[in-house]
Amino acid sequence: MTLFVDVAFPRPLLRNYTYAVPDDLSGRVQPGVRVKASLGRQTAAGVVVRVHDEPPDERTAVKDIASVLDASPILPPSILEFTRKLAEYQASSWGALLGLALPPPPAPPLKRRTSRNEPEAAEQLELDLETTSAVASAAAEIGRKIGAGEHAEFLVWGGRGARRAMITEASRQALDHSRNVLVLLPDIARTGDLRFHLQAALGTAPALLHGRMTPRSQAAEWDRVSRGEARIILGSRSALFKPWPGIGLIIVEDESDESHFQADSPSYDVRRGALFRAEEENAVVVYVAGAPTVGSYARARADGSLRILGGEDPAPLVRVSDEAAEKDVLTRAMREGIAGCLAAGGRTVVFLNRRGYASLLFCPRCGFIPRCGKCGSVLPYHKKNDRLVCHACGTEEKRPSACPSCGHRVLEPRGGGVEALEEELKTVFPGARLAVFDRDRAGRAADRVKILGAYGRGRVDILIGTQLLVRQADLPPADFVGIFHPEAGLAFPDFLAPERTFQLLIRMIRFTRPGSKRRGVVIQTGFPDHYGIRAASRADFEAFFSEEIELRRLLGQPPYTAKAEVVLNGRDVRLLGRKSRILAERWRKFGPKVEVLGPSFASEAGRPGIKRVQLELRAESAAAITGLLTAGLRDVGLPATVVRHDGFIR
DNA sequence: AGCACGCCGACT
DNA sequence: GTCGGCGTGCTC
Q1: Considering the domain A3-76 in this protein, what is its CATH number?
Q2: What is the reported pTM?
């Protein structure tokens, strides 16, 4: 009887390949060992995922494996199984996900020092863990599940201090039950103080694992872990895949942060991956949030896994200022807020999520608007270098001196960006020291450190930032925060737009210092009555949630239905168009229970020249979506990124 | 991902 | 007439 193995290769292949095992190797193959085998015209190493005696159908010419690389499985069954589920769920390559679990190839000899670690915010260590009774009882519950070796899922919602206490106490529970802890952070810049807290509270130094570490220090940290010296790993996405035995607790910090999703190949969502891994390890997964996503909140409330910790800082006074009622660029409330803060010698942070000087130039005579010659997007104007810069594909053009269409001599700017706001603030507050924090001026790590450093030392009175600034977790708190046009994000035809706007506002508002006497926030907007903006201004998540969930219900959006956004990438627009239409046709044939939107062109993000086409799937259940994805994408043969939103309310 | 086979432009 | 560009398809 011939023995066969199914092999998953660490390449973007959407299926595995079956090989015959020569008799002399048959004793050495088992799931989890690596083998070398001929793949096409080359030889590649892959992971055995199944050993069996079923020959593939006669039409396929089965090859023999060339060699077995490991004496015993390098990956345990739990890793094989959880990556299989994740690959199926995301319609990405199982082998590529397994590739993330394999030890990295030996590091090349060190050429030059690459220790460009961003300086950690030298915060003093105050160990005032807010272990309230809510934290203690949630931790005890988590501990009981861990002790029983049961898989369970929790969503924990609370303020900053309460969350940190929660992470600490839940970790203590796991360690007490001799199980290990994996903490997945969206942003590695936030590691510093959590690491010190865990070490001080639990007496054990967590290991740090993230992609931006040098291969050397990664290997060193992983060494500590595998020797059993570290019982807690703090890591970014990639840490999820480490074949580390004994995990009893997986914590996903800041659940609503979108960087838990990895878009590039292999694409996957860490939140989903953490769940699958916890299932396989009989571990508890805890999602921690300062403001949960609507989907997970609805679900946790429905199935009883929600734990509310409280402990939020007292909300600042937020004024929503209607700019339609006034004619100056800055509304009166905004001017007074900034002026008051300046007079008291406080720090002001101003958010406007629009790069450049103007979002477009416009000919007042014929209505012409310059667009990108490469990708067709409307071109924003950057005054700093007097050029039109395409934000979609990065192409730059000279500013036309006259209208290319009718020859009119002036093109007018429309839609002010941070550069225009900087100009305005300079005029209104001539003495103030300004700095701008956007991709153009803080694109590189060194510039970010410089600007934030100056601001932190009090050498900047008003810091103007785009969304890039919202992501700076270690930004020293401000006394006054001014927010301009949060409604800009609402223009996107995406059911998540209100939720994103709400989340963004909450994060911006939280940049104010709780203890400050001059603490205040002004939101200047053209949509002062939008429910998301209103709710955010009162820091009222429940209010936002109840409005939003009702709208989702009325429109049949997740979590009332299941949805997937599928983005296909390719160079050739015609091929992309053809294949995406075939795909859509196929999915539509599944009947009336499946709704297919598109294909339509998506914005050309990332590398120039790569076109993107988007499709949207909506169905009754997540399982139905999974079925459609696997049935469709396997033979399209184009790289795809899948973002899923599950439905679970009937 | 890699690698080969394919069909259109400038050239020893 | 060939060399070689990278678009397209395949890998048990």
Answers
A1: 3.40.1440.60
A2: 0.92
